[in-house]
Write a structure and sequence with these properties.
Length: about 725
């Protein structure tokens, strides 16, 4: 009763209860959204519990067991892996730091040669040959031709400026290619970056030690080994280089150290060798050819096979086009105008000559040099071409196809300066057997001028008479010896000029015995025929051996007036970069051997060999020529050596195994080779008269009166002529 006056609380309470009851009874009533939202909120909490807890209750115990084991293994592997990886990274970091500390300045690494080089210049100061590894000078990534820089990057490492020294994508791609081609993962394509290749070129900082017991070739082979250990070291060293040097410095080292065939180290040397220009001047086609050499320098060297090298260059042009370094027009132009060799590289002139110079010069400045040497020589490329062309012409037109016969040519001036040299039919060679300087062969009748030189120097005249008739001599230990003429005929009394012109044997032997064998031997030796000369009377017929260059040099002594010459090819030696020569030579003329008068008469007699004797095929028409043919027993060797007023040339022909020539004498093919050579050599030169002395014509005196009146003739000569008269029926 006391609460009867308070109406609001009961009313609120009644409404609250009234509101709850209908909500329970009619939950779907749309007029009360609040009561409908609350039940929805209550249902969300149990739904979350069903999403997390039920799988644990329903998991299969077997699956749960194995899941636990695998989880434990994974956690174990992960724990080991990240710790192992951390250790490996630390080791690599320490290795990179170590190699980083050992790397010198980049400029100290550009020249990769361990030996010196020799550059050979001709008489006109033009390069015609190289020996040893050439280094053309330092080029940099900034100074090299942009086309060459782009060609190298397009060929070897298109991501060069984006990686850290190692390209995982490149390695993976290389492994994939190797496996697809049936090779091992590390065989074939290596996926190496330019930085890795540079590390290999540097041999990871290990320099060649000549005292190590291994050769330079073995050292370089060791640096190129591709084992897994070496690959790992290569990668570490490459990363150290990336930390030490800029990209352009690494590229500079690579451009200067890469071997590009034909003895060229670095792109500057290669550009000079193949194209006769600097690496900063090469065009796109030339750049592509040089870049193509990196894969296989010897195989793709244009001096070995120009067409193969050009085909390889076209592939590089395609890569440059694909990577945007060349547009379609530039690429098409490069393909349509492929790189061509320079004249010196194309001809590779003077292979035999260059080898001879390297062998004849001081070893410490030629074949064993540790310096870069420049040698100015007597070589004449025009005359060399003349000799090679002449030899090929005669063999192509007058020698049976498939013949194995060989030939050699030497051309020199009267002072002994060698102008050209062909050591065999295969002229584009280096290091081959040189038949002009190394082959000792019997000289045959080409030795006879020294017999007549000795006699003329003793006072005989070209018009003096000598008997050509049957002759038999008793050789101690050998018995009777009876020389015969090539024609099997005898001509009776003949002048010395006729005897030499017709290359008569019996008269020449008589003259040799009259002048004295020792005198003949001395004259030949002093003129430069240094072989082991025969001691018996057969000396006069050329049974002794000589090299072509020595015999040609001896004839040069006759041309220059009777003084000996020492054939030479080196005019000046100097170190690269120095203007002062280390040594030099202006000529090879030595001491006088015979009088100038005797030499002049002998030149006249040798001229008659061409005009009326065995050397007719060597006639040059209006240009005076002197020379002598030579054919040995059984025609195993055939010679022609002769001269004009300008040049002396010698030709030898024969087989390396001493097989007799068929139908060949010195007056045949050798004389024709000589003529073809000299015609080409003298193109454009004015006609100059020979320094010969024509003897005064006089009646032929009786032999007895002649013998009595010549004080210079020995008693042996008188006795021999009397004996000859008896034997010859005179």
């Amino acid at each position: 009763m006391s609460n009867s006056g308070k109406k609001k609380p009961p009313l609120v309470a009644e409404k609250r209860y009234d509101a709850s009851k209908p909500a329970a009874k009619k939950p779907s009533k749309p007029s009360k959204p609040k009561t409908a939202a609350k039940p929805a909120a209550r249902k969300k909490a149990p739904a979350k519990k069903r999403a997390t807890t039920p799988p644990k209750k329903k998991r299969n115990p077997v699956i749960a067991f194995f899941a636990g084991i695998f989880g434990w293994i994974w956690r174990l592997i992960w724990g080991i892996t990240w710790r192992f990886t951390t250790v490996i990274i630390m080791i690599i970091g320490l290795a990179v730091l170590y190699f980083y500390s050992t790397l010198p300045e980049a400029t100290a690494l550009v020249d990769g040669r361990t030996r010196g080089s020799v550059t050979l210049l001709d008489r006109n100061n033009q390069v015609f040959a190289w020996r040893g590894d050439q280094f053309g000078g330092i080029i940099t990534a900034d100074t090299v031709s942009p086309e060459l820089k782009n060609a190298v990057i397009a060929t070897e490492d298109k991501r060069f400026y984006r990686h850290f020294g190692v390209s995982p994508r490149g390695i993976a791609g290389a492994i994939r290619i190797n496996l697809s081609e049936g090779r091992g993962p590390l065989s074939g394509h290596g996926g190496s970056t330019i930085t890795q290749q540079t590390a290999k070129l540097l041999c990871f900082g290990t320099e060649f030690d000549p005292n190590s017991g291994m050769t330079e070739a073995e050292y370089e082979a060791g640096c190129r080994r591709g084992s897994l250990t070496r690959k790992a070291k290569e990668a570490v060293y490459a990363m150290a280089m990336e930390a030490k040097y800029s990209k352009d410095e690494i590229l500079t080292i690579y451009l200067n150290r890469a071997y590009l065939g034909a003895g060229a180290r670095g792109f500057e040397a290669a550009a000079q060798r193949y194209f006769g220009k600097s690496a900063n001047e090469v065009n796109a086609a030339e750049a592509a050819m040089l870049a193509g050499l990196l894969t296989a320098p010897s195989r793709f060297a244009p001096t070995n096979n120009l067409q193969r090298s050009q085909n390889r260059a076209n592939v590089i042009v395609g890569l440059m086009e694909d990577q945007g370094y060349l547009d379609a027009t530039e690429a098409q132009y490069a393909r349509a105008n492929p790189a061509q060799l320079s004249q010196a590289a194309e001809a590779r002139a003077g292979g035999y000559f260059a080898d001879w110079v390297m062998d004849s010069g001081p070893s410490f400045l030629t074949r064993d040099t540790t310096e870069d040497v420049i040698i100015r020589t007597t070589f004449d490329q025009r005359i060399q071409t003349a000799a090679e062309t002449a030899l090929k012409h005669v063999f192509d037109t007058k020698v049976s196809e498939g013949s194995k016969a060989q030939a050699a040519i030497v051309i020199m001036s009267a002072d002994g300066a060698v102008r050209a040299m062909v050591g065999g039919r295969k002229t584009k060679v280096s290091g081959a057997f040189n038949r002009a300087t190394q082959a000792l062969r019997q000289t045959g009748s080409s030795f006879k001028p020294f017999v007549y030189a000795a006699a003329l120097d003793l006072g005989w005249s070209p018009n003096d008479l000598i008997l050509d008739g049957p002759l038999t001599m008793n050789i101690p230990g050998s018995g009777a010896w009876s020389p015969k003429n090539y024609s099997r005929k005898f001509f009776g009394e003949v002048t010395l000029t006729e005897s030499l012109a017709k290359s008569l044997n019996t008269s020449t032997v008589r003259l040799s015995e009259a002048a004295g064998r020792e005198n003949v031997r001395t004259v030949a030796n002093d003129f430069g025929v240094e072989g082991d000369l025969a001691l018996g009377p057969a000396l006069a017929l050329g049974v002794s051996e000589s090299t072509l260059i020595d015999l040609t040099g001896a004839y040069a002594g006759i041309l220059n007036g009777g003084s000996s010459v020492d054939p030479f090819g080196i005019m000046e030696l100097r170190l690269q970069g120095d203007n002062t020569p280390i040594s030099g030579q202006d000529g090879g003329i030595g001491e006088r051997v015979i009088s100038q008068n005797a030499a002049g008469h002998l030149i006249y007699m040798m001229n008659q060999v061409i005009l009326q004797g065995t050397g007719g095929r060597a006639n040059l028409g209006e240009r005076p020529v002197a020379g002598k043919t030579g054919t040995t027993q059984a025609a195993r060797d055939a010679w022609f050596v002769g001269f004009t007023a300008d040049y002396v040339a010698g030709v030898w022909m024969g087989y390396d195994d001493n097989t007799p020539l068929t139908g060949v004498t010195g007056g045949g093919l050798p004389a024709e080779i000589w003529r073809e050579t000299m015609v080409r050599t003298h193109e454009g030169l004015p006609i100059t008269q020979l320094p010969m002395i024509v003897p005064q014509a006089k009646p032929k005196p009786a032999p007895v009166a002649q013998n009595q009146g010549r004080k210079t003739k020995s008693t042996e000569n008188v006795i021999l002529e009397l004996l000859g008269g008896i034997l010859g029926g005179n």
